Amino acid sequence: xxxxxxxxxxxxxxxxxxxxxxxxxxxxxxxxxxxxxxxxxxxxxxxxxxxxxxxxxxxxxxxxxxxxxxxxxxxxxxxxxxxxxxxxxxxxxxxxxxxxxxxxxxxxxxxxxxxxxxxxxxxxxxxxxxxxxxxxxxxxxxxxxxxxxxxxxxxxxxxxxxxxxxxxxxxxxxxxxxxxxxxxxxxxxxxxxxxxxxxxxxxxxxxxxxxxxxxxxxxxxxxxxxxxxxxxxxxxxxxxxxxxxxxxxxxxxxxxxxxxxxxxxxxxxxxxxxxxxxxxxxxxxxxxxxxxxxxxxxxxxxxxxxxx
Length: 308
Hints:
It is globular and about 50 Å long. By secondary structure, the protein is mainly β. A hairpin with a 5-residue loop joins strand 2 (18-20) and strand 3. The chain has a single domain (2-307), classed as Methylamine Dehydrogenase, Chain H (7 Propeller), CATH 2.130.10.10. The model has no long low-confidence stretch (mean pLDDT 92). The protein has helices at residues 40-44, 48-52; strands at residues 2-9, 18-20, 26-31, 34-39, 60-63, 68-73, 79-84, 88-93, 106-107, 118-121, 126-130, 133-138, 143-149, 155-160, 165-170, 174-179, 185-190, 196-202, 207-212, 216-221, 227-232, 238-244, 249-254, 259-263, 270-274, 282-287, 293-298, 301-307. The chain has two helices and 28 strands. The strands form seven sheets. It has a four-stranded antiparallel β-sheet with strand order 1-28-27-26, with no helix packed on it.
């Protein structure tokens, strides 16, 4: 059973992004164009007063040109990639002394980028982003490896798979699978009728989950490309989706103001529904490796649930 540990209302500031570091020690969250990294314990102890005093503390603060839209840690916890609504992506070093200094920042140089969405493959040191076209960027050597033409579609989501493939979710409800050695499109999956907002991968079962604005969460067997029965329960589009490999759960959030936990080891039923007090649309979620901590951002706040 999860219990709510924190829920703060945030007025007049856009709070879209929340992300947990891979070692579960730190939380990144955004307020307008600034992002903050706090130890998890300090995040859970936030109050309205301490939230307003963050800029005066010696913590890691990242300032972008516009409202922050997405953030991802690298698996070694040494860097974080942050995008903003000017459609730019920046790689930041995370300082060990937590003084807030930003060193060796790298602005991802992709001209005419149409989206702030991206995904990392930290095993290969590459980043996928795009919009009308898909860009594969080598962030170790700071160069574009490939621009893949994506005619008449707009990419809303990216997911790297374990078999050296990239899945993209498109505006028309289709999913494309690309070979990351040849960059050729190998398969097209058409199982949604509206845009595919989220993708994530179950490496244990080789299953790709796709969440669409048609309210379905599809399960696609990557061995056969066959579709299992969709998971249905949200009443509004699914805003974020995370598969927790260690616990075998899929965690989803929605503009309906709920967070749902799905059992992927059994019959794929929803086993828990969490709802903040404000009941406002939820933008983003993050889940600890142990599955015992779920933090969220909503249209009017920020909060977290902890497993008892």
